[in-house]
Amino acid sequence: MRSIHPIAAAAVAAWLALAGAARAEEPAAPPAAPETAAPAPPETAEPAKAEAATPGKPHKRRRKPAEEPLPPPAPPAPVAAAAPPVPVPAPQPPAAAAGPEPWSEGVMLRRLCGDGLRPNEEDRLFGMISLTVRSTIRYEGAKVSEELVGGAAEDAVSGLIAACPRLLAAAERQRLGIAIEVIRDATRQRIAQGKEAPTRRLAARMPGRKTAADLSEALTPHEVDAWLDGLPPRQRALALFLYASDVTAKEEAEALGLPLAAVSAGAARSRQGMLSYFRDGEDGAATLARTRKAAPDGAAPSSFAALLEPARAEGAAPPAAVRITGISPDLYAGWSLLAAVTGLPREQTLGVAAPFVVERDGGGKRLIVTASAEITKPEAATRRFLLKAYTIDGDTGVGLHETLHFAAATVDNPEALKTLANPNLSNVEIARCLWHDYRKADDPGLCR
Predict the structure, then answer these.
(1) pLDDT for position 114
(2) What is the per-residue pLDDT for 286?
(3) Where are the alpha helices (DSSP H) in 245-395?
(4) What string of DSSP letters covers 110-140?
């Protein structure tokens, strides 16, 4: 290594001393403020790790490190096999679109106000009025008479028609209560006034024929049926002739095989029995029901249909002869036919195992027979039976002097069989429904 000359070394030392003195005389500069980086825009600023500037050195923005690649997504979890789709039931139509409107007293009263009552509904309406009138008369302590009941019923019909705006404005379930209130008010007013008017059925104010329900002007069809069913068969036949037939007493006696005096006495008992049933209400019904005679013990009755059906074997004669007639053209439902049988053994009786069809001689009128009841005693030479039957060709029955013959052993109309099996229908209502089942008339209501 080369050494410095002594003179040069002295000169260098002097120069350094002068430079240091000059530096010491200059004022000291304030310390420089640390530089800070300008804030990054919100979309690019990194909130975490902002680096501090180094004092005395210009700050350099570090380059943003390259983003590390994201880890690969996890494989999807295994998906279970899809369950079979749950069947969604198709929307059901409203109840009204599925069939006829369900019947109720509220519906009946709405139709009354709209002049849309059907025949069976008319009978039900009058039945409701009659029962309410009679119960109100008894409650008020007045005497039940046919005139008072008839007059109050007429007033009640007028009152219901006048109350139509109120009935139509009310909910269906509230209409029956309003109607009963109107009927009771009309009955109380009639009792207070002491007026008695001749009875006229609601049906008399509308077009239509007399019905079997008109056996009594103030009883409902169901009550008429119950009254007749409660009578012994011979008394039942006498009542039918009394209230529904215009034949003479002599003709009636010959038809029933009774002495003329017995017919007159029987008619008087029938009239008194009807009045008792009418006045006593349910008590009278119970009394009459107790008078019904039980069927005699013995072998099962032979079938009317089998006896009437033409013999299949050529030349074979039936064991007994049967002649069937009507009672009155006004009777087209219920106990409405008579059968006179000769040659029937004493120990044997006849019954109806299943409905069968008879037809009026000369055509034009068919009836379905559903039941029988013997009028005479088994030892009689000519045995006589009442037959329960329903016309299927219109609203007229068969007269006493018209005869009928066997037509069919069974009823082949399924709808007619449903009608016959409906326990809620009166005899008159059954007949009307049968006309509809055989397409002879419009739907009378309440058939199903």
Answers:
(1) 84
(2) 40
(3) 249-256, 260-280, 282-290, 304-308
(4) HHHHTT---HHHHHHHHHHHHHHHHHHHHHT
DSSP code for 328: B
How high is the pLDDT of residue 318?
58
Q: Find the helix or strand (DSSP H, E) in which 168 lies.
A: helix 164-169
| Nearest CA-CA partner of 184 in 165, 156, 210 | 156
Structure tokens given for 179? 């109607």
Task: Estimate the crossing angle of helix 172-193 against helix 105-113, to 10 degrees.
Answer: 70
* Antiparallel, parallel or unpaired: β 366-374 and 382-391: antiparallel
Contact between 285 and 301 under an 8 Å Cβ cutoff? The reply is no
Question: In angstroms, rounded to a whole number, what is the distance separating the alpha carbons of residues 372 and 157?
Answer: 38
What's the whole-model pTM score? 0.66
C-alpha dihedral sign at 285, 292, 419, 209:
negative
- Residue 388, token pair as written in the block: 């329960």
330 neighbors 244 (Cβ within 8 angstroms): yes
Domain ranges of the chain: 105-205, 212-290, 302-437
Question: Rounded to an integer, what distance in angstroms lies between the CA atom of residue 221 and that of residue 228?
Answer: 11
DSSP class of residue 387 equals: E
Half-sphere exposure of 218 (CA within 13 A, CB side): 26
> What local confidence, expressed as pLDDT, does residue 373 receive?
94
By DSSP bridging, strand 302-303 and strand 350-351 are parallel
Cβ of 36: how many Cβ atoms within 10 Å?
10
Q: Where are the beta strands (DSSP E) in 272-415?
A: 302-303, 321-326, 333-342, 350-351, 356-360, 366-374, 382-391, 403-408
254-289 pLDDT, tens digit per residue, is 999 888 888 888 777 777 676 666 666 544 344 433
DSSP 172: H
Q: Distance between CA 378 and CA 432 in Å, rounded?
A: 35
Could you tell me the mean pLDDT of each successive run of 10 residues in the chain, 448 residues long?
A: 47 47 47 47 44 45 53 57 51 49 80 84 88 90 83 91 93 92 93 62 41 53 87 90 84 89 80 67 42 40 74 58 93 95 89 94 92 92 95 91 93 96 94 95 90
